[in-house]
Design goal:
Blueprint: H1 2-22, H2 32-35, H3 39-85, H4 91-108, H5 115-131, H6 135-148, H7 153-165, E1 172-175, E2 178-179, E3 187-189, E4 192-196, H8 197-203, E5 207-211, E6 216-221, E7 224-229, E8 234-237, E9 240-243, E10 249-251, E11 254-258, H9 259-265, E12 269-273, E13 278-282
Parallel strand pairs: 1-13
Antiparallel strand pairs: 1-2, 3-4, 4-11, 5-6, 6-7, 7-8, 8-9, 10-11, 12-13
Length: 283
């Protein structure tokens, strides 16, 4: 009997000690501040961390792009300034400058931040080429500049002056920064420019249909339909009549039409630069 009581006492003591060990020390136990984070709070914190990491990676990528372009622009700018001061530039100097500008043009297509700086670099190179009578380089870089920015008026003006100096005064047509070549060159009559309709309309994404039996040209783009008839000073746009300053006509077996009326009706902008008779069309 005594042994049984002793066993029970020992068991009681062991259980009590185990419970006491399971309790955390005073002041260090779990509380709301330490353990009151639920699943939604953990998820939100995780998402914030991920978003911050993505933002940091995007910023790093942008800085890398800027650094890459800066690495090219800095020596290129120094090269142009050096060549401006040195009137005896070698063929190797010009070759290197051409290659670096081509690389800068390629980077322009994929980078948005420094586009104005890239344009300014091209303009500095063009000015250098013009000052040192490097006509071929100047013309090529002007073309490159217009591909970069088809709306740059100063580039069209400079290109026109270059054409004048070369004696090339034939009217020339650019559409969205690229020259449009036609079998029949543009014609100026009574202050109006007439151009082969198919080349220009297609450059602006319009369809052209020629109805020989009616001597009519039908130009369509989206919800716009233009009907022109040879030697008639009336155009029909979506059923409404408009008077033309110069009628469509035939030149070297090609139908030529008043450029400004057709382009502006198709929601494009037309600019004329008398220097070199350059015409620029942009949507």
């Amino acid at each position: 009997m005594f042994k049984q009581v002793l066993v029970l006492v020992l068991v009681f003591l062991l259980v009590g000690n185990a419970a006491a060990l399971a309790q955390p020390p005073e002041g260090k136990g779990p509380n709301k501040a330490a353990t009151g984070i639920n699943a939604s709070e953990i998820e939100a914190a995780s998402q914030d961390s991920v978003s911050q990491n993505l933002a940091n990676s995007d910023l790093t990528a942008q800085n890398t792009d800027k650094d890459a372009t800066s690495d090219l622009k800095t020596p290129l700018g120094k090269r142009i300034r050096s060549m401006e001061q040195n009137r005896n530039c070698t063929q190797e100097d010009w070759k290197t400058l051409r290659e670096e500008l081509q690389e800068l043009k390629n980077r322009f297509r994929i980078q948005q931040e420094s586009r104005q700086e890239i344009k300014n670099m091209f303009k500095a190179a063009i000015r250098l080429a013009r000052e040192q009578n490097r006509t071929q380089e100047a013309e090529q870089w002007l073309w490159d500049l217009l591909e970069i920015d088809p709306t740059d008026a100063s580039a069209y003006q400079e290109l026109g002056r270059l054409f004048q100096e070369l004696g090339n005064i034939q009217p020339k047509l650019w559409c969205v920064g690229k020259q449009v070549y036609t079998k029949v060159p543009p014609v100026i009559k009574n202050g109006r420019i007439l151009v082969p309709i198919r080349a220009v309309s297609q450059s602006l994404g319009a369809k052209v249909e020629w109805k020989a039996d009616q001597q009519k040209v039908i130009i369509s783009k989206g919800d716009i339909t233009i009907i022109l008839q040879l030697d008639k000073r009336v155009a029909i746009v979506n059923g409404k009549e408009y008077e033309l300053d110069q009628p469509p006509q035939v030149s070297a077996s090609r139908v030529i039409v008043p450029l400004r009326f057709v382009a502006e009706t198709l929601k494009a902008k037309v600019d004329y630069y008398p220097e070199g008779q350059v015409v620029a069309i942009n949507p």
